[in-house]
Write a structure and sequence with these properties.
Length: 331
């Protein structure tokens, strides 16, 4: 049975959540629009990205305007609006200029700060000037994933280099625009321990270019290369202990705000430990992301912690980054 064709005039979803604005916890309105899709996902695509399943190539500017208008029915005074398009809001071939201007004008009238996501190649003086005519404060989230160019190419297939990210950050900074950098925890073909080291090295490098660093632990999305590996037992999403460790160590090496809001956290497809401790660790991560106090990340224990530590030790020797529990035959 095929999937029901979505209504092009309806947003994917919209909800309110807590976030930080000028150091204060506020309600933020999150809006996910259905766009014609990320150009890179059509050309080649990132190995973990299943967002193209949410896009529709036939979406028009009119559809985008209708979606945003509908989503804004959920607006009830939030001063921070985060607009996601499963691609690049600043790409004029994805969010058509007519729709972009409508969305930004309306959002700019209602909120103090607007967040949009974009690949770095679309961040330039011209577009930032246009956007800043309509909104008071802008934040751009960029999925750098890792500061390591080789890893980004071989494990993610991101299709851009670190230099492109740094150039985008410098341009943004010249316009007073904030940067939220996404780093991925455990892309495929990398061991858990290598990925922890990579995220920490990346935090160190990107801290000075970012106002926020968001750690995104892998979530196995449908129809992706990562899902294919996961189904064969050749991939395990990261442990929550690894995320906890990255946030705790990371907070010591940067003054930039560190956050994480793991999609699918605690599920088989998302970052997880055992069923007993997932809930309380996710709660601690949520609290840390909002309040920035690393003390809440400390002192957690569970019977599965030893298993995670063994995993970190054994994985490099096994010569596979697969799911060791599933690949090891029962004794
Ligand atoms: S992760 Fe981002 S850049 Fe990569 S294909 Fe998906 S939407 Fe495009
Ligand atoms: Zn546990």
């Amino acid at each position: 049975m095929g999937r029901r064709r979505p209504d092009p005039a309806e947003p994917v979803s919209a909800w309110s959540e807590k976030d930080l604005l000028d150091g204060e916890v506020v309600d933020a309105l999150v809006i996910i629009l259905r766009s014609p899709g990320c150009y890179w996902s059509k050309e080649s695509g990132c190995l973990m990205c299943g967002y193209n399943r949410e896009s529709m190539v036939t979406i028009t500017a009119e559809n985008l305007i209708a979606q945003f208008t509908k989503a804004m029915e959920k607006h009830s005074g939030q001063k921070y609006i985060k607009i996601y398009t499963s691609g690049s809001f600043l790409d004029p071939k994805e969010i058509y200029p007519e729709a972009r201007d409508f969305i930004l004008t309306l959002a700019g009238e209602k909120a103090d700060k607007i967040l949009v996501e974009s690949r770095p190649e679309f961040v330039n003086d011209q577009i930032l000037k246009l956007v800043l005519e309509k909104v008071k404060k802008l934040e751009i989230a960029i999925g750098l994933e890792t500061a390591d160019d080789d890893l980004r190419a071989s494990s993610i297939n991101k299709g851009f280099l670190y230099d492109s990210f740094e150039r985008a950050c410098n341009t943004a900074s010249e316009h007073g625009v904030d940067i939220r950098t996404y780093l991925i925890l455990k892309p495929p073909f990398v061991s858990e321990v290598e990925s922890i080291d990579d995220v920490l090295a990346s935090i160190k490098k990107v801290g000075k270019f970012s106002q926020t660093i968001s750690i995104n632990p892998m979530n196995v999305q449908r129809g992706t290369v990562v899902e294919g590996l996961w189904k064969k037992g050749l991939y395990r999403p990261p442990w929550l202990w690894s995320l906890l460790s990255v946030l705790e160590q990371g907070s010591k090496i940067t003054d930039t705000r560190l956050v994480s809001a793991p999609s699918g956290g605690g599920s088989r497809r998302g970052v997880h430990n055992c069923r007993t401790c997932d809930g309380k660790i996710l709660e601690a991560i949520e609290k840390f992301s909002l309040e920035g106090n690393a003390e809440v990340l400390k002192g957690h224990g569970c019977i599965c912690k030893k298993q995670w530590m063994d995993y970190l030790d054994v994985e490099p020797f096994v010569g596979s980054t697969g799911d060791l529990d599933r690949l090891t035959p029962p004794q």
